[in-house]
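## retry 2 of 3
previous attempt timed out at serialization; input unchanged, resubmitting
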Amino acid sequence: MNDEMLKEIKKVALHNAIIHGGKTNPKSILGAILGSHPELRSSVLKVRFEVEKVCASINKMTPSKQKKELFKVGGFKEKKREERKGLPELPGARVGKFVVRMAPNPDGAIHIGNARPAILNYTYAKKYKGKFILRFDDTDPKVKTPEKKFYKWIEEDLKWLGIKWDKKYYSSKRLNIYKKYAEELIKSGKAYVCTCGDKWREYRDKRKPCPCRDLPISEQLKRWKKMKEHKYKEGEAVLRIKTDLDATNPAVIDWPAFRIVDHPKHPLIKKEHLWPLYNLASGIDDHLLGITHILRGQEHSTNEIKQRYLYQHLGWKYPVTIIVGRFSMSDMVMSKSKIREGIRTHEFTGWDDIRLGTIRSLRRRGFLPETITKLILEIGPKPSDVSISLDNLAAYNRKIIDPLTKRFFFVKDPIKITMDKVPMKSFELPCHPRSNLGKRKFKITRTFYISREDYEKYKDSKVRLKDLFNVILGKKSKYAGKKLEPIPKIHWVPQSHITASILTQDGYVTGFAEKNVLNEKVGKIVQFERFGFVKIEKIKKNSINAIFSHR
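## retry succeeded, writing output
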């Protein structure tokens, strides 16, 4: 390798060391060099060997000496990054007079798409010294049937994300409030009880009033009383809010506000048959709870039109609305209906199945709340749809957990090799090459385990057992010295090892891991080198079960 290239490696490595507290990372330097000089990829082993030598030398220098050396080789200045100024200002937002809400339906666990408005609303509430309200939208006991466990799970997930609410409400416990305003709307001629059933759609499509619409208020109140007394059966009567019959969108014409459910299944409310629909309950609550700003998806634009009719009828001022695009993960299941069906058919093991985009799933896999919050705040309240991959999320998580995570050896599909001799009886390695996370000890014998893939690929060749010594692989492998050479590195575990079973999105991966992993605790995230980050779920005497997080 020529002197100019060595000089560039040294320059890049010195700069990297200075901005990372005096320690440089050979992998980062190798990636940077190959990125700038793709022609070197054909001799990557030689380049890596030189990079590692340079980095080892630099890491022994004091920070002041590193700066002097960087100056000598014609060092460069780091480009200043543009600092984010935080979330954009919201129109009409005033400090101390700002109230937002999250209104989850407790018919399932929340996913990362649900977490986005929760995090944005909570962050804005802190920014404007306002309030964040949690209101369970649980007035649909027929289609989106609430379940008791989901109330608890939603609260747990929000707390895990670091979100605290100032007040908590249950829409199902506010039914009398909704009935009161419904009656007020009937008395003012702004709502009516319709008994037309399916025929009503024919009138709507012709932009004509149904026969029920213009009945006297006294008759409307009688019908309303019959609805309250359950003298109508499900589907026989519905309370409608009067709107413009000539509206372009037929969905907003005389929209339904109350309906009868004959056999409701609700964990909090028993023996109630008269239930409000979303736009009535949500619209009334937003006003009564003092909501000043609503961050909502484009799919709710029709609901906003409906609710504005309600506000106009009641003489209320509608909150400021900010449209936020749909947020999804391209390679994770997020649809609650698909998840429920998958659980029913045993395709998924539960709401924390690692193939799902639920918060419980991501938490189980080892993603941190800071990761999710950071990603969502960087995206901000964009009106356009946003789709990310698991790799995108993993990139954020990796930056946070990498310096905090111990590293261990793991080989999948292990095969046994026996050495002719070994130069030591014990060996010690740091748990992390750059962070002070302690050391791990190995008892060295002539027996090792490596992956079958490495054995078949490098059989009869010289390789380095990573961080240990060189060997020539074969039926009986031969010790080949400790000298660093530009040869392949392979992972290994000693004769004394444990079995590791790791659940991935594609099923279980099993192999051998070093015994030092047993010193960790359940719930701890560790890195299996060359495999990825995993979260320990179960520890036994000579084995562990773990969940694959990401690479």
